[in-house]
Every structure is written in C-alpha cells, then in structure tokens.
Design a protein that fits this description.
The structure is a single chain. The protein has 12 helices and 20 strands. The protein is α/β, with parallel strands linked by helices and about 425 residues long. The strands form 5 sheets. Strands 9-7-5-2-10-1-11-15-19-20 form a 10-stranded mixed sheet, with helices on both faces. Strands 14, 16, 17 and 18 form a 4-stranded mixed sheet that branches. The protein is globular. About 45% of the residues are buried. The protein binds inosinic acid. The site of inosinic acid has 20 residues, from α4.
C-alpha cells in the first residue's frame, strides 16, 4: 500500500500532470483534493496530448479510479464537457469517476462575480483565471455555498439558490451596476446537470477510507502550487484553496496520519501566471527566450506565463511546509542554451540578506535576489535517456539543487513526452 501526495512547490504549472500520469501506473486511486477548473494539467501519451481541468490525470490508465474530493469546487458545465471530450477520444469515465457529494458548486454568478471584482477600479487585481473559484470558496466559507448533495433535494436547492441569488443580485446591481441572474434558468439548468452527474456522485471519504482498509495505492494530485495556497502562498496573490499537502487530508476525508509520502514537483526555473510578487523574474530578453522555448502559456487561459530563475528560498519553504521527501525536476531542457544558470539563495532587503521566504508582501516585492551562478551545459538534453548521460554541468546543477534543498531529486523531465523522463 502506498499513499502519496504530489504537490507543486512553486506557483503552479510545474508539470504535475505528466508526473501524475507516470506515477498513476502503480495507483489504484488518483484524487484531486482542491481547486477546480482553474487548473490545467497537460498529459502527453501514446493517445495524444490532453489538457485536464477537473478530472484527475490518472484517467488514462484504465484500472485507475479517479476521485474528485470534497475540497474541490465543481463547475458542472466544465465537468460534463470534460467527460464528453474524454469519451470522444475513447476514454470512458463510467464506473471510474467518483465525485464527492460534499463538493461545493460553481454557479454562473460566481464566474461573473470573479470577473467583475477583477475589473473593478480600486480593487486588488489578482489576475485570476475567471472561473469563479474565489467566489465559490467565498460562499463556502460564508456558509452560503451550495454543495452537490443539495441538488438532489429539490426543495432545499430551491431555497438555497433563491437566497443566494437575492444576495448576489443585489451586489451585482448596487456595486457593479449590472443586471442580476434569473432564478428559473439556473434552477432548471442545474437540475439537468444533477441528473447527468448522478452516476458519479457519492461519499468519496467512505470510498477512500475503504480503499485504505483494502491496502490500495492512493495518489493525491495537487493542483496549482504551494505559493498559491490561500494560507501559505504570496497572499493575496493566491488561489482560494489549500494547495499544500495538508490540504489532501482536509479535501478528501483521508486522515492525515494515513499519508506516507509527499513528492514535490518543481520546474528547473520558475514561472507564475497572474499578478503578484516574483523576485527572480527575468528581464524582457530572457523572458521571451524561455517563454518561447518552454511554451510557457497557460493551459487554462492561454495567458503568457512570467518566467524567472530557480528560487531556492521559495522551494525550500515549500519543502518544509509540505514535508517533501522527494523532488521531481521538470523542463531541464528549457535551460539547454544558456551560458549561465542562476539559483536564488536569498533576498537583499535593507542591507540584510533574508534567507527564509518572508510573509511580508513588501519584502517579497522589494527584496533583491542574491544569486549563485552555475556554468550552463550548452547541449541538447531532450534525447538523453539516463541521468548519467546528461552533460556534466546539468548533473552538477541538479546535484546542487538537491544539496541546497536537502531533499533528493528522484526524477527529471527533459520534454513533455513520458519517454523524456529520467530516474536519478
Ligand atoms: P484563481 O484560482 O482563478 O482564483 O486565480 C488566482 C491565482 O492563481 C491567479 O494568479 C491565477 O493565475 C493562479 N492560478 C490558478 N490556477 C492556476 C494553475 O493551475 N496554474 C498556475 N496558476 C494558477
């Protein structure tokens, strides 16, 4: 039996989809525990390239059961679209997809609210994906959210939706000067969604705890990255869920004591989408070069990703709060053409060097990175089949990352295909 959590240790887009797909070969269950369709997990396998937003990346292995836990916010329209598109490509989710009846729902008013807040002058712009994630989690925390289970109790759903719209429509009209939503259309649309989702909805905490008793292998698939966690991230420039490994227990109903190992995924450099501090961000020339080479455009929104050097202070913090025991480094090949590769070891702020990741937004924004420079390897690594065959400087770079983080690097990725993966 193995119960593992895979988390992103930066700001998301570390390449978790590919790693989950590889690790899924030994898994019985793959579980999403937070976030929603703001995520975009890219998997390239024999059948082609797929971008998943809600369904766990284990879906391509036919013996794997995929679970969407209670900590996820579900947009039924996006979910049903994803199920349909998988079906068209020959991957049936029937009998293999389980969605928590406790998961909260995203409604059209959440999506609109998300965009209106972002565009409102004077409000902080986060650069969200516009999928209604924050407003749905907001309703959950305010205790006005609507859960999947509620859809199957018509009278209760009627009452909850009516109350929710009363409040939302007043906000839309009075603060944003836009028209509200009509009850009837949403009510009947969501009842239809409920019918379509029925075969998948169950108590997934029961299912997973039964799986633990049967000594099954469970893999938790983190979405986004540690520094987008609502508690541990670069607040307020974060998402609204518990991205970190602890979130796997909260967002699934699996006891924290059952989790055996946490695997962290990092890129060989750093990227971030949306607003917020990014100490090691490249200046424009290198930014375009790496963005182009690494195809750094959001899998969900298509937005260009901001790129920068590997920030060891940021990742060290992630290792600590997640309890990361193994690291997977992705996209090493993107650095192939660089003469020098830099690792950020601290931030200079007011004459002092800060060596642990600061909580203060001001220090995160104004701290000047202190770098350690390494000679590049200046050769193509995309066809390399084993770690020992990598250029010496590439191996040195990986060994150095591992030494700084005090965590072994166990896997390396040098391209998007599953075959471009090396064991260290
Ligand atoms: P939200 O999750 O849509 O509310 O967006 C909040 C922040 O998280 C924004 O900066 C987004 O760009 C970022 N974000 C959300 N999901 C992802 C993801 O899957 N990868 C990278 N960034 C993300």
């Amino acid at each position: 039996m193995s119960i593992k959590v895979v988390v992103g240790a930066q700001w998301g887009d570390e390449g978790k989809g590919k790693i989950i797909d590889i690790l899924s070969k030994d898994a019985d269950y793959v579980v999403r525990y937070q976030g929603g369709n703001n995520a975009g997990h890219t998997v390239v396998n024999q059948s082609g390239e797929f971008v998943l937003h809600l369904i766990p990346s284990g879906i391509f292995h036919r013996k794997v059961r995929c679970v969407i836990g209670n900590g996820v916010v579900v947009d039924p329209e996006a979910l049903l679209r994803e199920i349909e598109s998988l079906k068209q490509k020959g991957f049936s989710v029937k009998g293999r997809l389980f969605i928590s009846d406790r998961a909260h729902l995203i409604f059209p008013y959440h999506r609109i609210y998300d965009r209106l807040r972002e565009d409102k002058k004077g409000f902080i712009k986060i650069g969200t994906t516009g999928r209604g994630i924050g407003p749905s989690y907001g309703d959950k925390a305010m205790r006005s959210g609507i859960r999947l289970v509620d859809l199957y109790d018509k009278a209760l759903f009627h009452e909850k939706l009516r109350k929710s719209l009363l409040e939302k429509n007043e906000i839309f009209r009075k603060i944003y000067g836009v028209k509200g939503f009509k009850f009837k259309a949403i009510y009947s649309q969501y009842l239809a969604f409920a019918r379509a989702m029925k075969p998948y909805v169950c108590d997934t905490a029961l299912l997973l705890n039964q799986a633990i008793r049967e000594k099954k292998n469970i893999l938790f698939e983190g979405a986004q990255g540690t520094h987008l966690d609502v508690d541990h991230g670069t607040y307020p420039f974060v998402t609204s869920s518990y991205v970190t490994a602890g979130g796997a227990a909260v967002g699934s109903g699996v006891p924290p004591t059952a989790i055996q190992k946490v695997v962290g995924v990092v890129k060989a450099y750093t990227t971030r989408v949306g607003e917020g501090p990014f100490p090691t961000e490249f200046a424009s020339g290198l930014m375009e070069e790496i963005r182009h080479k690494g195809k750094e455009f959001g899998a969900t929104t298509g937005r260009p990703r901001r790129c920068g050097w590997f920030d060891a202070v940021l990742v060290k913090h992630s290792c600590m709060i997640n309890g990361i025991a193994e690291i997977v480094v992705t996209k090493l090949d993107v650095l192939d053409d660089l003469k020098v590769v830099r690792i950020c070891m601290g931030y200079k702020y007011r004459g002092k060097i800060v060596r642990t990741f600061p909580a203060s937004l001001t220090v995160q924004q104004r701290g000047v990175p202190v770098y350690e420079d390494h000679a590049g390897w200046l050769s193509d690594t995309t066809q390399v089949k084993k770690f020992s065959a990598l250029p010496k400087n590439a191996r040195k770079y990986i060994h150095r990352l591992s030494a700084i983080l005090s965590v072994p690097v166990t896997m390396l990725s040098v391209g998007s295909h599953e075959k471009q993966t090396l064991l260290v």
